Amino acid sequence: MSSSEGGSSSGSVARYGPTDRRYVSTLSGLRGLLALHVIIIHFLMAFLPNTLTVFDAVLYPPSGDAHWMVKVVETPVVSLLVAGPFSLMILFALSGYVLTMPFFDGRRERLGVSLWGRYFRLTIPIAGAILFSLLLSRLGLYVNQDVAAITNSGALAQLMPEAFLTPLNAVRDIAYNGLLSGLSFFNVVLWSIKYEFIGSIVVLAMFLVMPDRGRWIVIGATCFLMAFYLEQGAIFVVTIVGGALLGYFPVPKRWRVPALLVGLYLGGYIPGRFDYAWLPVLFENPGEQLFNVFFYNGFGAVLVVGAVIAGLGDRVLNTRIPQRLGDYSYSMYLLHLPIVCSLSCQIFLWLPRNDLSLLVNLAVYVTAVVALASVYARYVDAPSIRLARRFGGWMTGARRRERPVPAPAATGAVGD
Asked: Which of 218, 319, 325, 363 is the most buried (most CB within 10 A)?
């Protein structure tokens, strides 16, 4: 792929032009594969929680009758197959980069449009997903508690508490809980959308006021304030900032493979494993062990995104399946847990408990998520993008022509 010079008042950097559709679609393809990986990890969370014990022994307690896959996924490099936190951190880094593309393309005013429209862009799809979850609850289709008692999944046992799945709580989650507190009884994945929302607001506002000189003071002060305000949660926002900084420091093409390898190494971080023993453990509390994973995954995520921006994987990511998944990624992310806790858990209870049944269950689950997400993306997600752009343009007075939105590809990552 070729690159062009894009510039702004902050200087010019070598990057793709704002109209390079193939380049934007590459990032969308990456997002699609990451979303698929996350929904599969949550399937393992429900039915094979021992495969995730290496990342968090509190949520996924070990047991004496561990599945044969446990030893496999504990193997170096292979552990990336269950590194769900890594996929999430790549989505965060990707979000920071994509959101700030207009700044480096000389279209700083577009940041204001995105900033004003961000609440609607994220909240409208969230609202539909919460109402979907409420409907499943009212129909009595959530049986995840029964399955958790069998699989010993502490994470699954915490989902969809019946006493809290009320219409009033649904309204609260839609209005503010989903984005501001990240606490949702209807869809626990909103904890990450909270950090996507906060991080995107921080990054957009920061680049809107970014000075030509002293920019590192602004960036450093922002990260410090986030660490003070969000404590451990600042890891997610700083990763979004790190993705945005790739606009200043793009990975050179000749370094894209080493960047990918180092990124994957950090992405496979497992606390206490011999090949990571030289890395300091920042969070000693057993209940905070997963933050060590997120911390190192964040560095790895920025390197992986940088390698992809430099052109690595372009041909694969622009093929049909990643592109379709990229179109549906936010919808898949919002809808998959209600499907796990209802359809997949029902199938688990119906079928014999063996590997073949799990494979059939996984195939039905992925098919159901993608099929439902394809409809949701068209009738809920894409309209939310158009509304957010109109509102942002109205608030900022930006003149722009209306363009069709084939996929949520160029306005963020986790939430787009």
From this structure: 325
pLDDT category, 122, cuts 50, 70, 90?
A: very high
Q: Torsions phi, psi of 17, nearest 5?
A: -75, 160
Do the Cβ atoms of 267 and 85 come closer than 8 Å? Answer: no
Residue type, 25: S
- The whole-angstrom separation of Cα 185 and Cα 130 is 9
Residue 20: the pLDDT is: 47
Please give the Cα distance from 87 to 149 (Å, whole number): 28
Please enumerate in sequence order all residues whose Cβ is within 8 A of that of 210, keeping only pairs 6 or more positions apart, or say none: 10, 103, 218
Q: How far does Cα 290 stand from its chain's mean position?
A: 16
Using CA of residue 187, residue 193, residue 198, residue 204, what is the dihedral sign? negative
Nearest by Cα to 126 from 186, 168, 181, 84: 186
The torsion angles phi and psi of 170, rounded to 5 degrees, stand at -65, -45
Mean pLDDT value of segment 159-184: 90
Alpha helices in 254-354 (DSSP H): 256-267, 289-309, 314-317, 320-339, 345-350
Query: Amino acid identity of 34?
Result: L
pTM: 0.89
Residues 6+ apart with CB under 8 A from 387: 117, 120, 121, 124
